[in-house]
Design brief:
The complex is a heterodimer of chains A (239) and B (305). In chain A, 75% of the residues lie in helices and 0% in strands. Chain A is globular. With 305 residues, chain B is an alpha+beta fold. Chain B folds into two domains: 210 residues, Rossmann fold, CATH 3.40.50.300; 78 residues, OB fold (Dihydrolipoamide Acetyltransferase, E2P). Chain B is globular and about 70 Å long. The chains are: A mainly alpha (239), B alpha+beta (305). Chains A and B meet through helix 6 and helix 7 of A and strand 5, helix 2 and helix 4 of B.
């Protein structure tokens, strides 16, 4: 119990002292979460909308692929990506191995299926009649997509929360691709691992507590946004 | 000139043929009701006219813009007025006009009090009002409506029917409406088209079609459920055509009594068929032999389908 208490005290000390190491790790963690979630939303939302709304050959396969992506083992993603980033490998010329850009890419690969699969599921749950009616009033494809995004906003925010959560807590792929370089591309989760590996359990615990605090703050903000946007949806009445 | 001309329209959906050579025309200012039993192809016709399905053969030619209020009446998760404004956005109405036109359309449908209510919190009848309001808000040259009163309780249905007829005539160039009930057709439409098995089985002025259907199949669908064989063919009757009268010329046996709000509908076996009559309560009992006379109905030659 005293061991846990030490961790809490150290975490508090690290936070109030404005420790530059901790500040850098938090900054890198936030950057990885923002960039990977942003790119995943940018790429994944149109794919999710197309899979949710479209009627084209291969749609079912796309949905299976996106759902399978939800279960991608991060270590496997990290291993495959790092092998692809070796100098002689296909991605070698981009010099991504052991860089922050490599970490961004690894995290996008993990977050993209989350955004695609949850967006597609949220859009598919919308009543088909809404879109048939929109077409009957002359809605363009873009207007139908805008309608889908607005109507499925709770599901899309859930996808965003899941993508951010994955970025904040991910270790396997980040360590393998980024190399867990202290002061450069280390995130809170990978820094905690390094501290534990080095036998600095209290420091590891302190970083873990900071990470949990960050997850709580970000998730609370997104959940609040989700509740605000979702309020009208809760007013369903029998027909 | 016709606002809508449908010529020899054939539509296949999957492995079945929903429409088999349908032709019809709708002139500007006209309201046409489409009636037919389940599976007759009514919704497919409406959706093809609205451009949701493509014809397999034949053609649909429209003059001007067309709007459709289809089934189900799904609304977006926003207020009723915002739903009407959304339809106006899709239609391409200028932003500055949307609010005013949405409010006017809601008022036309007696739904102004629903303007700020979340659409998903509305009852079935209220939802239909908003659904119809967005259809009339866009003021199309041709408006198609698919069973706008389906699934409503009788009171809501009657109230909505009262408000819809005049609103449609004021706000749309021409209207094609699928209805389930011949009373609705009579209340709304100038002309009726009866679809049976994907084909036009009858078409003409509403009262004429309802009172003098052109074939036994159409007559049976339109409520002529009694049937008696006569020397030259068959006579089809509605219950209102058969009167219980001790001096009547037809002997009948009561086989079933179905209570109605004003008495009962008595099903009667007669020598050459089976007919029905409306009787007050207390009336005859099942098994009683009574005499009736037939005051109306339609005669078809024996070869008629």
């Amino acid at each position: 119990m005293s061991f846990f208490w030490h961790g809490v005290q150290d975490a508090w000390q690290l936070i109030v002292s404005g420790d530059p190491y901790l500040r850098h790790v938090i900054w890198v963690t936030i950057k990885v979460a923002v960039v990977s979630t942003g790119v995943s939303l940018l790429v994944g939302l149109p794919i999710g909308l197309a899979l949710g709304l479209g009627r084209f050959r291969g749609r079912g396969f796309g949905l299976v692929l996106a759902n399978a992506g939800l279960m991608l083992p991060p270590v496997v993603v990290g291993l495959v990506l790092s092998l692809l980033m070796f100098p002689a490998a296909p991605l070698g010329r981009f010099q991504l191995l052991f860089t922050l850009h490599g970490v961004y890419l690894a995290q996008v690969v993990l977050a993209l299926p989350i955004v695609v699969a949850l967006t597609a599921a949220a859009v598919r749950a919308l009543p088909e009649g809404l879109f048939t009616q929109a077409r009957a009033f002359g809605a363009s494809r873009w207007q139908q997509w805008a309608l889908a995004v607005r109507e499925a906003r709770i599901g899309i925010l859930t996808a965003t929360i899941a993508a951010v959560g994955s970025a904040l807590s991910e270790v396997g792929a980040v360590v393998l691709v980024g190399g867990n370089v202290q002061g450069y591309d280390q995130t809170l989760a990978s820094a905690a691992i390094q501290q534990v590996d080095a036998g600095h359990y209290a420091d590891g615990m302190a970083i873990a507590i900071v990470l949990l605090g960050l997850i709580l703050v970000v998730t609370a903000a997104l959940t609040l946004a989700q509740r605000r946007t979702g309020r009208p949806l809760q007013l369903r009445a029998p027909s | 000139m016709s606002t809508l001309a449908v010529t020899d329209l054939v539509v296949r959906r999957g492995t079945s043929t929903a429409l088999r050579g349908v032709s019809m025309a709708v002139a500007a200012g006209e309201v046409v009701a489409i009636l037919g039993p389940n599976g007759a192809g009514k919704s497919t016709l409406i959706e093809t006219i609205a451009g949701i399905h493509s014809p397999t053969a034949g053609s649909v030619s429209r003059t001007g813009r067309i709007a459709a209020a289809l089934q189900p009446a799904d609304l977006a998760a926003r207020t009723s007025r915002a739903n009407v404004e959304l339809a106006l956005t899709w239609w391409g109405t200028a932003r500055r006009e949307r609010r005013q036109r949405a409010e006017r359309a809601l008022a036309e449908m007696n739904a102004s009090h629903l303007a700020n209510r979340p659409a998903l919190a509305l009852s079935g009848g209220e939802r239909r009002r908003v659904h119809l309001a967005r259809a009339i808000a866009v003021r199309p040259d041709l408006l198609v409506l698919d069973e706008p009163f389906d699934g409503l309780d009788p009171l809501s249905r009657a109230a909505l029917l009262d408000d819809t007829g005049s609103a449609l005539r004021r706000n749309a160039g021409a209207v094609v409406v699928v209805v389930h009930d011949r009373a609705e057709a009579l209340a709304l439409a100038d002309r009726i088209v009866v679809l049976i098995d994907g084909r036009v089985a009858a078409s003409g002025p509403s009262r004429e079609v309802l009172e003098r259907p052109p074939s036994p199949a159409v007559a049976r669908f339109l409520g002529f459920t009694g049937e008696m064989r006569v020397a030259s063919g068959i006579v089809l009757t509605r219950p209102t055509h058969v009167v219980v009268d001790p001096a009547g010329e037809i002997d009948a046996t009561v086989t079933r009594l179905i209570p109605t709000e004003d008495g009962a509908r008595a099903e009667l076996d007669v020598r050459d068929g089976r007919i029905a009559a409306l009787v007050p309560l207390p009336g005859p009992a099942v098994g009683d032999r009574i005499r009736v006379r037939v005051t109306g109905g339609i005669r078809f030659p024996a070869t008629g389908g």
